[in-house]
Amino acid sequence: MLTLDKIYHASYVLKEVIRPTDMIKATNLSDEFELYLKTENLQITGAFKARGAYYKISQLTPEEREKGVIACSAGNHAQGVALAAQKYGIKSVICMPNSAPISKVEATKSYGAEAVLVEGTYDDAHDKAVELQKETGATFIHPFDDEMVIAGQGTIGLEILDQLPDVDAVIVPIGGGGLISGVAYAIKSLNPNVKVYGVQSAGAPSMYLSMAHNNIETLPSVNTFADGIAVKTPGDLTFELCGKYVDEIITVSDDETATAILSLIEKQKLISEGAGAVSVAAALFNKLPLKGKKVCCLVSGGNIDVTILSRVIDRGLQKTGRLAEITVALTDKPGELTMVSKIISKLGANVVAVSHDRADLNTDINACYLRISLETRNHEHIQKIKDELIRKGYRIVQ
Questions:
Q1: Which of 232, 279, 300, 319 is catalytic?
Q2: Most buried by CB count within 10 Å: which residue of 30, 102, 214, 291?
Q3: Among residues 6, 49, 56, 104, which one is catalytic?
Q4: Cα separation of 235 and 240, whole Å?
Q5: Contacts of 196 (CB under 8 A, 6+ apart)
Q6: Annotation says 310 is catalytic
């Protein structure tokens, strides 16, 4: 069984490889409550997962170490297992979904692990890992449904209470539930008055639905760029612990998560992956009763694939009204583009792209569509531009 002593023991063992991550006051992110960031995105391997994986592997017997370890992961657990195995001189095999970011796959290999790419999602990688474990006799290092792994993750809860003793609420990302199970158990054991909230992606709400229906549920599919928490089925142990120690679980959309990533980059100079930013998204979009409270958001990882980072930033800009697309229907004659540009320029927006389409079958023969991409200040600024174009006689199509 999970105990507070086990979490304290994990904290002692982890001192040789894990550093306590900083607690940063985020004064620029909210005016309604006092917000702090627990920066596990700056942890070794770039995520909290190294804690649980290292502690679990540290407790293996010599016989178990001889046979090696096997794991399944979307990327962060993979790196934690690979790092721990390397430090103990153990062979490691990691099954990863073939959709896992290349950066995470290569990072896993860099620690000496054998990466087996499996078609499908995390759950398909899990099934393959179980199959290989039976064939090889290696020890399976579960990413979340294991009390040793959970104890390792629970060391974050100890650090939070040490760094912010008067915290009122802690917001934690949820995939399979290992992180929040450990953090909630540690915090509630030491200070039951602290609220612990969980956040899932709306495209992968397995624990959210399981808690709502009081029964473990398996999703038919998951759809989110937050690959680190894209889990179809929560664990048996984590489901039980969440039911006992977590106050509430909510969901956030991918657009809200993208906005949180952008806010962390711009205002805190921090890089977070999607899974790590859902806690911040929950705070920014007022999903929880936090007004006047001292709040800690656990930013669980920073291993975002740079190939999608630009798309995530664009979505965040669109969500906050700082990037807009306007389509104007106008007569195809000289000077029209100049007139539209003058209106936009006068109102202080910046044109970044223009598309001039004459071929649309829905337009008149002498008409065209002008599609304009703009850098703007906010949604009110966008509406002001549209209103002025309409006042000048132009028709806004989109």
A1: 300
A2: 30
A3: 49
A4: 8
A5: 169, 170, 172, 180, 183, 184, 187, 188, 245, 246, 247
A6: no
Residue 225's alpha-carbon distances to 197, 260, 273, in angstroms, are 21, 13, 9
Contact call for residues 260 and 30 (beta carbons, < 8 A)? no
List, in sequence order, the alpha helices (H) in the chain: 4-14, 49-58, 62-67, 76-88, 102-110, 122-136, 147-163, 178-190, 206-213, 236-245, 254-268, 274-284, 306-319, 336-346, 379-391
Q: What are the C-alpha distances in Å from 42 to residues 37, 274, 275, 298?
A: 11, 15, 14, 12
Q: What does the alpha-carbon distance between residue 115 and residue 354 come to, in Å, rounded to a whole number?
A: 44
Enter the pTM of the model.
0.88
Q: Which residues contact 333 (CB under 8 A, 6 or more apart)?
A: 366
Pairwise CA distance, residues 108 & 192, whole Å: 37
178, 235 Cβ separation under 8 angstroms:
yes
Is 15 exposed, middle or buried, given 0-12, 13-18 or 19+ CB atoms closer than 10 A? Answer: exposed
**Which phi and psi angles does 367 have, rounded to 5°?**
-120, 170
| pLDDT, one tens digit for every residue, the chain (398 residues) | 899 999 999 999 999 899 999 999 998 899 999 999 999 999 999 999 999 999 999 999 999 999 999 999 878 899 999 999 999 999 999 999 888 878 888 889 999 999 999 998 878 888 999 999 999 999 999 999 999 999 999 999 999 999 999 999 999 999 999 999 999 999 999 999 999 999 999 999 999 999 999 999 999 999 999 989 999 999 999 999 999 999 999 999 999 999 999 999 999 999 999 999 999 999 999 999 999 999 999 999 999 988 888 888 888 899 889 999 999 888 777 888 888 889 999 999 999 898 877 655 565 656 788 899 999 999 999 999 999 999 998 888 87
102 sits in the region (left: phi over 0; alpha: psi -120 to 50; else beta) called alpha
